[in-house]
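May I ask for a protein sequence together with how it folds?
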Amino acid sequence: MSAQHSFIMVQRLFILAGLGSLAAIGAGALERGDGCCGGASPAASSAPLAAAGSEQPEAAAGDPYPLDSCPVSGGKLGSMGDPVVKKYDGREVRFCCGGCIKKFEADKQKHWKAIDEKIVEAQMPFYPLQTCPIGGGELGSMGEPVNYVHNNRLVRFCCKACLPKFNKNPAQTLKELDEAVIRRQSENYPLQTCLVSGEALGGDMGGPVERVYGNHLVRLCCKGCIKGFEKSPAKYLTALDDAWRAQGGLPAERAQAAAPGEKSQDHEGHGAGDDR
């Protein structure tokens, strides 16, 4: 082999080694998320930023939006096509159109207050407890009860001191509230058919599927109807309310009559770590 040929081979080896080093450096930069100017690369910044007014990742499933009107325009949902669904900290809101979203986010406190007032009014006749789910004391025994809306669900407390305890483990309290709703409303449930399909409950498809939405017991013929219900919850809740009225009235009176059995503990030690 000539000296010139040996020199060329050595040059090629150096070039290949240099390319390998550049590739390793580039791979490391991608792993670190370095862009061409020291910033984040598109891959590294693909997760959405939490801008003001944007919804956050859902922490826990809440009830679907139970109202039939847009919180901004007041228009009936569905009158301008399919409602626009948004979630804020896991709480669902439905708008008549995309244009209402910015108006909502410009003054969320105002709109949340109006939504909560309507939810309290709609769910109060179905609320199953006359006692505080945290302290166990009679609602009203410590002044006006606190009506609190958690993820579109009314929960009532004897006082504001119970709110931090509820927020430590809301799932447990909501589970107990669901159980109370089912106990209170099962015996006099006004329908023998599925709200969604119209099929008879307890027929060839087995026992009904029970869910609680907005403190209403809802019975469906099968799990397949859950999606249909949650697509238009206000429509079906209105039909259920009408069925209760047709058979003699909403269940508030029955709940009040049965409420003393719900007291599970007294209010002693209320302010000192009395968690449930």
Remarks:
- DSSP finds eight helices and six strands in the chain.
- The two ends are 87 Å apart (CA to CA).
